[in-house]
Fold each of these.
Amino acid sequence: MKNKISPKLKNIRSSILTPIAFLLMAIFAILFFYTPYMADKNIIDIAKEGSIIVLALVTYTSYTLVKREKRLLKTNDKLEKKLKNILLDFDKNVIASTTDMDGKITYASELFCKLSGYKKEELIGRNHNLIKHGDMPKAMYEEMLKTLQAGKTWRGEIKNSTKDGGFYWVDAIVSPVLDGSGKVIEYNSIRQDITSKKELENLNESLKARISKAIAEAQEKEQHMLKQSKMAQMGEMLSMIAHQWRQPLAAISSTASSLEVKMILKDIDIATLKSGIKDIQAYSQHLSSTINDFRNFFIDSKVLTKTSFESILNKTIQIVKTSLDKRDIIISFQNHFEDEFCIYENEFEQVVLNLIKNAEDAIVENSIKNGIIEIKTYKLNGKAVFEVFDNARGIDNALMEKIFDPYFSTKSKKNGTGLGLYMSKIIIENHCFGTLEAFNTFEGAMFRITLNPNEFSLPPDATQ
Ligand SMILES: Nc1ncnc2c1ncn2[C@@H]1O[C@H](COP(=O)(O)OP(=O)(O)OP(=O)(O)O)[C@@H](O)[C@H]1O
Ligand SMILES: [Mg+2]
């Protein structure tokens, strides 16, 4: 705006100065050339000729001045109109206000009125505090005042309230207006409506909070299910422990009874006593190691361990052996992946146990005479594959899609929670970044775990 007006003002100034300069120059030229000629003339002629020339010059200059004045007025009109339009545009499209030093509003733009819901006359003369929103900290206004009083411009985002109790957000630039001596006499403020931007920001924030909450809830649910599934396994384990303990407990009891009888009959020598005690110690040792197997299995640790399929399977078979033997189920293991790799061993053992128990359950349920569970491991395209086969007629095709769902079970409530495969999938796919799939073979079901053996590595100083 300033750039457009100043050349016009310059033009006006030069249009007035040029004819005056011309008149002065003409008078000077006449005086200069006319002086020698004056000597031959009498004073009356000089006066006559001089006044004619001066009159002509003054007439011409006046004509030019009047013409230019008209042009000047026209330009002035045009400028005034332009300025008025600019001010109207400003009033309509800019949220602006001016306040005196006490914060009393002396000017409020139309857009400011529209946004705040107040009429101009309701704002003028009132304190700017009128639109202050309770959410804005007092410290912000104090800092603004400090900046303005120092003669500097303040900029920031402000939440203001509307007449009807609503609010809007603005990005405000507030600057002090100084008088000729540099003293602050009033404050000007222009603002941009950023309510939608703020609403979007708030929406983003609340979305983020909701997503984190949902993730936390899902993790908690998963943790809960993992516990539930472990508890169910624990129930099965107790009956397995009972089976495994039956035989050594009976042996301890019979050894002790035989020693007792021999002692009553006084038919005992030190060697027999020693051997009996040794037997009891060996059986107790066996009981203790069985308990350790189960205890290790249930330690709730998600620790990366360097291990192998063979080591994992040996431990798992140790646990299920008695139960499988009792049901005449043969378990075989063809290991073609002998490398060691890092994995959450306890969790992986839990999965293997789930798969073996499911196979055992299916064999029992379908009254398969020569129940066989085969475990095969091999390397395929750099991946470690672990497969569990059984010969229990497989999974009904209609159920295939559901078996990994939580709480899906075809067993009675007492015998199955339906969490075994769901948790196994979470452990393999979410914790170990592998895959767990189910297929039907000619004879039964097959579950395949595919892992990347290089997915995890132990820190160099870890001693596992
Ligand atoms: N080897 C298998 N042969 C046939 N069906 C199977 C086999 N493994 C799983 N299933 C089917 O998948 C269902 C879900 O198995 P999942 O291990 O999740 O639960 P569950 O064994 O029923 O209960 P839980 O594992 O809590 O004891 C089983 O009820 C069964 O119908
Ligand atoms: Mg199961």
Amino acid sequence: MGRAFLALASLTIASAQTTTAFLALASLTIASAQTTTEWLVSESPHWYAITHDPFCDELAAGTLPNATLTRYLVQDHKFLDAFVVLLASMIAHAPTLADRVPGAQFLALITGKENTYFERSFDALGLDAAARAAPPAPATSAFIGLMRRAAASGELHAMLAVLVVAEWSYLSWGERVVPRDGLSFLHLEWIDLHRGEYFAGVVAYLRGMLDALDLHASEMAIAKSYFDDAVKCEKDFWDMARGGEGEL
Ligand SMILES: *[C@@H]1O[C@H](CO)[C@@H](O)[C@H](O)[C@H]1NC(C)=O
């Protein structure tokens, strides 16, 4: 509904000129066939980059240097607290119990199996306490800040926009890459956490909640702003992980 409203607003402005009005009407027809999350992705200049980062292909090929994987995992693990706060806030703001339950179950995975993956990986990579406690890189701090801001906003659409970017972009690369045979758990488990029926269901749930919200134009603009900021944070994070910035 919100999408149609935005397009309708631009149709009203455009109607001063017949040709432009016709074009706007054509885009209204196209836009109303799109869900909110499809539209957000279609408007995102960096969506392709964050779902096709070479890091993921090297991870699946088993050729990713341990130093790169270490930098990525140590930094990614620093999101955990802010992510738990964001997901818990979304659960608290969801309209019904039925809307909360899948989120709560995903929260259990994040704080359970995924968290033990980090611990086991840090052990396998031989990281001491100092390496695990490395300060957050600027890209990490920026993303943590965005997650906390979305959580504190009290706005369900802001929370969902950030969660959808984080989980949908990971499902996209997780389903895209082809892990080679005999991959170590370090590589394979991180891919497996981000593909398959369960994780696809999590993404469908988060997208479905955002798509179901009847957002007016200003709320849609807020959702888009959080979505775009989250995509930028993901892009900067991949760049950092591949050695563009940050430290081991
Ligand atoms: C990377 O770490 C894994 C896990 O400890 C180890 O098996 C592997 O040999 C390491 N790779 C290199 C190139 O050092």
